[in-house]
Amino acid sequence: MVAQEFTVDLNKPLVFQVGHLGDAYQEWVHQPIPTKESPRFFESDFWEFLTKTAWWVIPLIWLPVVCYFISKSVLMGHTFPEIALMVGLGIFIWTLLEYTLHRFLFHIETKSYWGNTIHYLLHGCHHKHPMDGLRLVFPPAATAVLLTPFWNMVKLFATPSTTPALFGGGLLGYVMYDVTHYYLHHGQPSKDSLRHLKKYHLNHHFRIQNKGFGITSSIWDRVFGTLPKTKAAEKSR
Predict the structure, then answer these.
(1) Phi first, then psi: what are they for 156, rounded to 5°?
(2) Residue 97 CB: number of other CB atoms within 10 A?
(3) Using an 8 Å Cβ cutoff, are 51 and 142 in contact?
(4) What is the rounded distance in angstroms from the CA atom of residue 171 to the CA atom of residue 236?
(5) What CA–CA distance (Å, rounded) separates 140 from 155?
(6) Model pTM above 0.85
(7) DSSP state at residue 123
(8) Contact between 14 and 32 (Cβ < 8 Å)
(9) Whole-angstrom Cα distance, residue 180 to residue 68?
(10) Buried b / exposed e along 121-149 (16+ C-beta atoms within 10 A)
(11) pLDDT tens across 102-146, in order?
């Protein structure tokens, strides 16, 4: 069967189907289905379970870990202002990492069977089903696997006593990102700043999917020129 003629059956487990789309995968995955239902990913109930995470699990699991790492730097003698500075720097570094991962990894273009399959699991599923509330945050098991290389990366440019607080700040930035991401999809913000951020992110899903890669902030989109144009700006052209 020619890859372009393959049709995904949404009533069957999706993960091992999407690879067959070949070159047509990119177009298919960026045509969102805006329902809150969770599609089936795997035949196996075990693997299916691992793909679903309620938003509150993220702070429940990772905030104690954040406190543990920050406390390690405190016990090494750092003052509160120093700890606050290191945690703040960790959060700031996360915002750049958030943008970089979203732009260059999550939006990589694939066309091979396994490339499409892995991309769908990593981020494509979120663009296809953007309102799926159980697949909006990153599964803790996957996060745990990634923590070791990120810890080693921080150790490369930080001292032994500052590494824990910087790492804790970065992890706190991740928690803020995941919770914010869920809220932008399912929350009803009353503050103008959050309403703007929600509109900004949903614009990325439903209007201009190759712009607006920031989730918690648009700062790096402004720095790197990926800020989407407003409708008013487009009409004036």
Answers:
(1) -70, -35
(2) 17
(3) no
(4) 42
(5) 22
(6) yes
(7) I
(8) no
(9) 23
(10) bbbbbbbbbbbbbebbbbbeeebeeeeee
(11) 999 999 999 999 999 999 999 999 999 999 999 999 999 999 999
